[in-house]
Amino acid sequence: MLRHLRLLAVQFRASLQTSMQYRAEFLVQGAMSFFWMAWAVVPLLVVFGKRERVAGWDFDHSLVVLGWFLAMKGVLEGAVNPSLASVVEHIRKGTLDFVLLKPADAQFLVSTAKFAPWHVVDLAAGAGVIAWAFSRMGTVPGPAEVAAALLLTTCAVAVLYSLWILVVSAAFFVVKVDNLSFLFLSIFDAARWPVSVFTGFWRVLFTVVIPLALMTTFPAEALLGRIHGTALVAAVAGSLAFVACARWMWLRAIARYTSASS
Amino acid sequence: MIRTLRASPTLLRVGFSEAVAYRAEFLVWLLSTNMPLVMLALWSAVARDGPVGRFTQADFAAYYLAALVVRLMTGAWVVWEMNFEIRQGTLAFRLLRPVHPLVAYAAENVAAMPVRLAVSLPVALVALWVLGGKHVTHDPVLLLLFPVTVFSAWLITYLAMAAVGCLAFWFESATSLFDVWLGLFGIFSGYLVPLELYPRWVNEVSYFLPFRYMLAFPVELVTGGLTRSQALVQLAAQQGFVLLLLGVAVGMWRLGTRRFSATGG
């Protein structure tokens, strides 16, 4: 455990040093982050300009969901996406051998290989939107709510990561998956809306198949103190199952790996 | 010019076979155009207890399905391709051919249209079947104009992408600038939200930007939101933007290729 933490620190430092070379990128990233934050609020303003409440959500509560969406997107693009994009490259070129030879767990190594630290701006943007929502409501979340929200956020990050691992595992079978990640990003975009505005097919898709609900709506509900205890337990159990499933798929996929040159 | 015309059947055939050869990827690309469906689900929830502006649930369905069809038909990817080829230097191969690269890129994009049509036709038919003919314009002139407006919308999309792609001659990455373009497109083209539902000034500004003519114009035309005279005025504006962007794209290409030097192969 300690060894893995040390490895994580090393990998992270390497990423940080690489990105320190591109300091202008920080400004671009920051500007883009603000642009997308404003952009994301626009449809929300239009919808809630027409209606007070939609499917039991008012503007302030939806804003909390949106904040979570921005932050999770930052996590996805800053911590999950870059490393896993590089695994796909490794698989395509056959250089994954070098990773597999190293004396540490391959999944751990590939998924910490690369970070894009500048996306920390997105986290700040998300937190800013959430703070704005709470200041509009004039309330402050209690410690129990914060704890529940943090627990669910951990689950959300774990599920997001596991989904990505599943996509990468698919790369061992079909190789060309950069498209698949593009598709996932486009679907992830729906997470900016509280899941209860969707009905029928979409509701099932976003709750069970691709658990977007768990990533943004549930943590927001927890912070707002409107989540049920059963939903909390189900979310934790569900995400544990998801992580286990992803690990199993990864092990199966890696067993199939034959180097490109052989 | 004549040389280009003679080469175009072959260029189109090559592009078409590429689209068919990479059909799995192509399908994934098409599937990632799912935003109109998500927005449709959202607005249906909003309009469940009464219309929003003049939009009932059925109007939203007609609008977003038409938007999906137009978006599917007007897709282009030249900005990423140019960015990549300029970075890698493989643009040199294109420059050697006796066909203008902008035409060659365009041919590749146009050639994928039959495949796009094969995907968007079912969407259009489902829309017609579910909603009935009530939400499609009955004016034969406007119906005939629709394909013209869609093709012009594609031209605007393509030329704007080519112009932004040319920036890769000067800057490290033209694609992050293109993200801004895409963001503005989302708002001012009516892709996210029908333009009528925005505050009035957004709608008015949108007449002077190219984005409306890339999506909202064909969509409003086919769903019966425009009279003939309104349609003709917007058509004129659309053609104006096509010409303007053609000038910009060709001009930037000329300036850019002067700077271009490939290293390695």
How are the secondary structure elements laid out?
The complex is a heterodimer of chains A (262) and B (265).
Chain A (H helix, E strand, L loop, with lengths): L1 H19 L2 H28 L2 E2 L2 E2 H35 L2 H6 L4 H6 L8 H18 L5 H32 L3 H11 L11 H10 L2 H12 L5 H28 L6
Antiparallel strand pairs in A: 1-2
Chain B lengths: L1 H20 L1 H9 L3 H12 L10 H17 L4 H11 L2 H6 L4 H11 L1 H19 L8 H27 L8 H14 L11 H7 L9 H7 L5 H32 L6
Largest interface: A-B, 30 and 30 residues
Put simply, the count of helices of chain B is 13
Individual helix count of chain A: 11
Largest sheet of chain A: 2 strands, antiparallel
Poorly predicted regions of chain B? none
Distance between the termini of chain A: 34 Å
The share of residues in extended strands of chain A comes to: under 5%
Spatial ordering of strands, largest sheet of chain A: 1-2
Number of strands of chain B: 0
Q: Overall pLDDT of chain B, averaged?
A: 82
Question: Main sheet of chain B, how many strands, which sense, barrel?
Answer: none
**Radius of gyration of chain A, CA atoms, in whole angstroms:** 19 Å
Listing every helix as H and every strand as E from the N terminus to the C terminus, the arrangement of chain B reads HHHHHHHHHHHHH
Specify the helix fraction band of chain A. over 70%
Low-confidence stretches of chain A: none
Q: Residue share in helices of chain B?
A: over 70%
In terms of structural class, how would the helical and strand content of chain B be classed? Answer: mainly alpha
Tally of DSSP β-strands of chain A = 2
